[in-house]
């Protein structure tokens, strides 16, 4: 059995979700017989890790600080193996602008977007280009922070009158934002698992059906607010495209261990919206739901992810 530090909490907007994920992972590891040490990320975390000298760290941190390569780089410095993707992949996936540029370069469909930085707004008068960007994308469109999750700061904009309010809202969460073309279609989450020594594979296709229309924070984490179809009720050829697209995105962004690729299927074509290197493991999260539907218990899922970390040297990750 291994000595495992479960890193949870942190300082991002997703702190509370991280605690839920962390508690579930902690209890699963304890049931599996591991020696588990839950750590809330704070100023004393590095010292605690050095004193504990764990066999591995199970990262349950969502958002900035957890999914952006910060904690991964620290763990590599300490020589502690960890779950999930390395710093470079984490940076790419966390920043939706970087991710979309990499996906487009690889020929992977993703909605068109335009990037704005607060610095350009302040120093270059970039706000004058907002209407140009919006017109090129067309309405409706989405305005969202480039480096946040759980739909924080995200707005759907129906026309020119709403663009400035949406931009100010997004800038309240991040100094970098995206204007993104709106995609109508079926929302499908694609969880990918990469056991030690094996190729990554799709656990299942999860069709997301929010009861109130929008898959926002409340719909994601309120039991009963969203219905799920597993497997997704799409045509066989569309299902094959979803699997191929998700695995290509996973490899293109350099993910390892596990990740979740979020898509919207428009006219049979999957459009990649986001790639999460540390997806939620709450009771309503799509990753554990897909694992259960595929025959994996939650303990099986956690053990598979931990085993991949234990068998992969931290310094070997990208």
UniProtKB/TrEMBL annotation:
User: Top enzyme class of this protein?
Assistant: ligase
* SUPFAM superfamilies found in the cross-reference section: Glutathione synthetase ATP-binding domain-like (SSF56059), PreATP-grasp domain (SSF52440)
Question: Cofactor note, please?
Answer: Binds 2 magnesium or manganese ions per subunit.
Report the coiled-coil segments.
none
Which pathway does the database say it acts in? Cell wall biogenesis; peptidoglycan biosynthesis
ATP-grasp domain location is 100-307
- Keywords carried by this UniProt record: ATP-binding, Cell shape, Cell wall biogenesis/degradation, Cytoplasm, Ligase, Magnesium, Manganese, Metal-binding, Nucleotide-binding, Peptidoglycan synthesis
Q: Where in the cell is it found?
A: Cytoplasm
Q: Which cofactor does it need?
A: Mg(2+); Mn(2+)
GO cellular component terms, semicolon-separated: cytoplasm
Gene Ontology MF terms in the entry: ATP binding; D-alanine-D-alanine ligase activity; metal ion binding
Residues of the active site are: 14, 150, 285
Gene Ontology annotations of biological process type: cell wall organization; peptidoglycan biosynthetic process; regulation of cell shape
Q: What is its EC number?
A: 6.3.2.4
Q: Name the family.
A: Belongs to the D-alanine--D-alanine ligase family.
- Role summary: Cell wall formation.
* Name of the protein described by the UniProt record: D-alanine--D-alanine ligase
Organism whose genome encodes this protein: Rubrobacter tropicus
């Amino acid at each position: 059995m291994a000595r495992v530090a479960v890193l949870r909490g942190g300082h991002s907007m997703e702190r509370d979700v991280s605690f839920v994920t962390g508690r579930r992972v902690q209890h699963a590891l304890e049931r599996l017989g591991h020696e588990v040490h839950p750590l809330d990320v704070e100023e004393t975390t590095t010292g605690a890790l050095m004193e504990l000298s764990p066999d591995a760290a199970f990262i349950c941190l969502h958002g900035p600080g957890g999914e952006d390569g910060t904690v991964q780089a620290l763990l590599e410095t300490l020589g502690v193996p960890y779950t999930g993707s390395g710093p470079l992949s984490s940076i790419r996936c966390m920043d939706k602008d970087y991710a979309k540029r990499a996906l487009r370069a690889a020929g992977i469909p993703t909605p068109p977007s335009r990037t704005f930085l607060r610095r350009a707004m302040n120093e270059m008068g970039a706000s004058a280009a907002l209407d140009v960007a919006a017109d090129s994308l067309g309405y409706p469109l989405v305005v969202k922070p480039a480096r946040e999750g759980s739909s924080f700061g995200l707005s759907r904009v129906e026309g020119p009158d709403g663009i400035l309010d949406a931009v100010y809202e997004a800038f309240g969460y991040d100094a970098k934002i995206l204007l993104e073309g709106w995609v109508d279609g079926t929302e499908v989450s694609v969880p990918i698992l990469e056991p030690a020594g094996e190729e990554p594979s799709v656990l299942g296709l999860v069709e997301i059906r929010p009861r109130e229309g929008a898959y926002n924070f409340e719909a994601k984490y309120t039991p009963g607010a969203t219905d799920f179809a597993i497997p997704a009720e799409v045509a066989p050829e569309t299902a094959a495209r979803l699997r191929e697209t998700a695995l290509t995105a996973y490899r293109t962004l350099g993910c390892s261990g596990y990740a979740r690729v979020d898509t919207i299927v428009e006219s049979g074509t999957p459009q990649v919206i986001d790639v999460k290197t540390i997806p939620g493991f709450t009771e309503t999260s799509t990753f554990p739901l897909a694992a259960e539907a595929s025959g994996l218990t939650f303990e099986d899922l956690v053990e598979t992810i931990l085993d991949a970390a234990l068998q992969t040297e931290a310094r070997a990750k990208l």
